[in-house]
Design brief:
Elements lengths: L14 H10 L1 E4 L1 H9 L2 H13 L4 E2 L2 H51 L3 H12 L3 H13 L10 H9 L12 H14 L15 H15 L4 E5 L8 E4 L2 E5 L1 H11 L2 E5 L1 H11 L6 H17 L2 H55 L6 H51 L2 H14 L8 H14 L1
Parallel strand pairs: 1-2, 1-3, 3-6
Antiparallel strand pairs: 4-5
């Protein structure tokens, strides 16, 4: 026996292993792969489904995958649509709030600088259109994701059903309870796959998918097993420096022991890359980019326990910054009141002396100049205090907007299904600069920049 034969399950699949799996292996799709056809744009969805169709004779899904697909399809389609509606409503709400605040600043500028009505109108027009690029981008994306049609007339569903006709396994029979007991044992002992789903209502889903996959591979004497899943958790993948490098060694060993086959596991992005390489499939860089967003940024940056903790920490930090900003706001408001009084007092003394001098009751020109100078300084101090007050008010409003958004995401993370959470995370990525989109603060800065440029 070769030195590495006993430890082969620890090796990362080579290019030859991957090519062999693509050319002749059993191809098993997890539920999230099918749902990717809904989450991608129409062009990317078409390319994904076309790649799967090229391998149709070897594609197969476990009964559990089919069950999860039909059980959750309506929710996935609805969540996708509701996600855009919610985002548009949130942007419009934010736009109204920010526009109102900045319009007040424009009106103040109009009074202080004596702008013409035409100049004032130009500022207002620039302000009112500040959110238009973001709204147009959202509408464009919504139209691209509208390819699924109505829930009862779904072209993607029809295509998947045709593609997988006769390519799905049967459910467990009399041995269902035994498999549920095995799933519980694995969860209790952290044996992959599925032990990370212990908190789910039905924690045995991943194990059912895996057990049915091995049963099929053994049944057809598959030499190679190509397993495609969008699940990025550590109970499926071996991770190095927080990156997935291959299937868990335990799964590779079990595949060889139970079914006598070599296991190659990858996410949808890698599946599409290798399909382009080994199947000569047409897959654009944009399609791969979309797949990688779902596989890494959304799957890793916004995954459950650790990311909820990070959201909580970010919320606490933002709350602390907001408290400090509010303290500065109240201090600035107090300074405004004080400087208003000082200016009013100085002006009152100056005016009083002028009246006395005009009536001949006083003749102190030096004192009048002193009081005029004092009133001028009080006016400058008042203007500075007002400016600092306005700046602190903008800072407080901006931080409140950020905190509201962060709390919304944290609430979704704790309560929503994984599909809803992924969509919410996608919204967060969109709002926080992915694809050069504008954040709330960037929109605010753009509006201010338009005012300054004008």
């Amino acid at each position: 026996m070769a030195f590495n034969e006993q430890f082969r399950h620890f090796l990362v699949p080579s290019k030859d292993d991957i090519q062999q799996a693509f050319s002749s292996g059993l191809v098993v799709l997890d539920t999230n792969v099918l749902f990717s056809a809904y989450r991608y744009t129409s062009e990317a969805s078409e390319q994904l489904l076309t790649v799967i169709e090229k391998m149709r004779d070897r594609v197969w899904i476990p009964h559990q995958v089919g069950l999860e697909f039909y059980r959750n399809r309506v929710n996935v389609v609805s969540d996708l649509r509701n996600g855009y509606s919610s985002l548009l409503a949130h942007v419009n709400q934010t736009s109204a709030k920010v526009t109102k605040e900045l319009q007040e600043r424009v009106n103040e500028l109009f009074k202080r600088v004596s702008l013409s009505e035409e100049e004032r109108s130009l500022l207002t027009s620039s302000l009112n259109s500040a959110f238009d690029p973001l709204l147009e981008a959202i509408e464009t994306l919504r139209k691209k994701h509208a390819q699924a049609g109505s829930l009862d007339d779904d072209p993607i569903l029809r295509r998947i059903e045709t593609m997988l006709e006769g390519r799905i396994g049967a459910p467990f029979g009399a041995d269902t309870e035994a498999h549920m007991a095995e799933a519980a044992r694995r969860i209790e002992n952290s044996v992959p796959p599925g032990f990370r789903d212990a908190e789910k209502v039905e924690p045995y889903g991943d194990y059912f998918v895996w057990a049915q996959t091995l049963s099929r591979a053994k049944e057809i004497n598959a030499r190679d097993l190509l397993f495609i899943t969008g699940d990025e958790k550590e109970d499926w993948y071996r991770q190095v420096n927080r990156k997935n490098v291959s299937a868990r060694p335990e799964l590779s060993a079990e595949a060889r022991e139970v079914a006598g086959c070599s296991l190659v596991m990858m996410n949808v992005g890698d599946f599409l890359k290798n399909a382009r390489r080994y199947l000569d499939a047409t897959v654009s860089e944009e399609t791969i980019r979309q797949a990688e967003i779902h596989a890494t940024e959304i799957g890793t940056m916004f995954h459950y326990p650790s990311q909820i903790q990070r959201l909580d920490e970010a919320e606490a930090d933002l709350g602390h910054r907001l408290a400090n900003a509010r303290a500065r706001f109240f201090e600035a408001r107090n300074r405004v009141a004080v400087t208003n009084r000082k200016y009013a007092d100085a002006r009152e003394r100056e005016v009083g002396l002028k009246e006395l001098m005009s009536s001949g009751e006083a003749h102190d020109a030096d004192m009048l100049r002193h009081l005029a100078h004092e009133a001028e300084h009080a006016l400058d101090a008042r203007e500075i205090a007002h400016a600092q007050f306005r700046e602190s008010q903008v800072e407080v409003n901006s931080l409140e907007l950020q905190l509201d958004q962060l709390r919304m995401l944290a609430t979704l993370a704790r309560s929503a299904s994984e599909a809803t959470w992924r969509d919410a995370a996608a919204q967060a990525l969109f709002l926080n600069g992915h694809d050069d989109s504008l954040t709330h603060l960037e929109v605010l800065r753009q509006a201010l920049a338009n005012v300054h440029r004008t």
